[in-house]
Design brief:
single chain, about 160 residues, alpha+beta, five-stranded antiparallel beta sheet, 2 helices, binds zinc ion
């Protein structure tokens, strides 16, 4: 496993649309492992492949340090209710902003064995699913921030 460089706001690759994964390869499996390592090393709770410069529809999420999710070609099936709170992004270091998201999300995706599954999330998991799926379409949370982006102390970053 290896850390990968996280692309930051202003890098064109973050605005590109990622392509679906058709087959799993050792190279893509290694990418997924690297994405987890990069996310943990940078204290993130989610990471999309485009953030490490790879335009594939792959997201990794771990919001509680206990449950790792790999979402390949994710498709949001249902959203409900709403939550408003701070959000941050590894591609926008040192900043946070208020974003309203659904409080419940149901998503269909493939896992790393290319088996389809359905994941339901509420609260932080729902927020992370929306945030990371947005990355796959070149969308970044700063576009959704209500009010101003704020500076955040390094030890408080999400
Ligand atoms: Zn992000």
């Amino acid at each position: 496993m290896a850390m990968r460089k996280v692309r930051e706001l202003g890098d064109d690759i973050l605005r590109k649309t990622c392509k679906p994964v058709k087959v799993m390869t050792p190279r893509t499996l290694a990418l997924i492992e690297d994405m987890f390592e990069t996310m943990y090393e940078t204290n993130g709770c989610g990471l999309a492949a485009s953030q490490v410069g790879v335009l594939k529809r792959i997201v990794v999420i771990d919001v509680d340090g206990e449950n790792q999710y790999v979402l390949i070609n994710p498709e949001i099936l249902e959203t409900r209710d709403s939550q408003t709170g701070y959000e941050g992004c590894l591609s926008v270091p040192g900043k946070r902003g208020i974003v309203t998201r659904p409080n419940y999300v149901k998503v269909k995706a493939l896992d790393e064995t290319m088996k389809e599954y359905v994941l339901e999330g509420t609260e932080l998991l729902a927020r992370a699913i929306c945030h990371e799926c947005d990355h796959l379409d070149g969308k970044i949370y700063v576009d959704l921030v209500e009010g101003e982006l704020e500076d955040v102390e390094a030890d408080e970053e999400e």
